Automatic annotation (TrEMBL):
The protein's name in its UniProt record: Post-GPI attachment to proteins factor 3
One term of GO molecular function: hydrolase activity, acting on ester bonds
Localization of this protein: Endomembrane system; Golgi apparatus membrane
Keywords, in A-Z order: Golgi apparatus, GPI-anchor biosynthesis, Membrane, Signal, Transmembrane, Transmembrane helix
Taxon lineage: Eukaryota, Metazoa, Chordata, Craniata, Vertebrata
PANTHER family: PER1-RELATED (PTHR13148), POST-GPI ATTACHMENT TO PROTEINS FACTOR 3 (PTHR13148:SF0)
Signal peptide: 1-15
Species annotation: Xenopus laevis
Length: 182
């Protein structure tokens, strides 16, 4: 019964409200046709800042970003709540950062985890029973914060999967650490 329920709900949650909005879809289609083909695509690439190119922002990504904010402005003008797009709330892009505050918070958490790793290695003798287990947990945590920073900087299918997989590995390693220390 449960698999059928999941399959039934899969169609219901296939897109965010903003993604389903005809104004947004039409805007993306028109923008893509007008800016992302032929000579106009070359113009887009020529005008695109280097940091945007290096982080993989495409013309279609730019269209989606601009159309998201166009749709949000219409929603606000009509007195409606701001919808989600692509499963996320709209954030203002800063340089190439999709979610600047989240990327900064993840980066700072990663730095804190790295500093604690160095502190742990310098203050705890390697002969301690749980030394390697705790060391591995620290490295798993640093890796998770690294991928979280990358994901919040540039959301792609790969960075999303790495963020979630690495966050899950921290949780699993935490459970393992609790069981080993009990």
């Amino acid at each position: 019964m449960a698999p059928f329920l999941v399959l039934f709900l899969a169609g219901v949650v296939s897109a965010s409200r903003g993604d389903r909005e005809p104004v947004y879809r039409d805007c993306v289609t028109v923008c893509d046709q007008n800016n992302c083909t032929g000579f106009r695509l070359r113009d887009f690439r020529a005008q695109q800042p280097l940091y945007m190119r290096l982080t993989g922002w495409t013309c279609l990504d730019d269209c989606r970003y601009k159309c998201m904010w166009y749709t949000v402005s219409l929603y606000l003008k009509e007195g409606h709540e701001v919808p989600q797009f692509h499963g996320k709330w709209p954030f203002s892009r800063f340089l190439f950062f999709q979610e600047p505050a989240s990327a900064l918070a993840s980066f700072l958490n990663g730095v804190a985890s790295l500093l604690m790793l160095f502190r742990y290695r310098s203050s705890v003798p390697s002969s301690c029973q749980m030394y390697r287990t705790c060391l591995a947990f620290s490295m798993v945590s640093v890796n998770a914060w690294f991928w979280s920073t990358i994901f919040h900087t540039r959301d792609t299918a790969l960075t999303e999967k790495m963020d979630y997989f690495c966050a899950s590995s921290v949780i699993l390693h935490s459970i393992y650490l609790c069981c080993m220390s009990a």
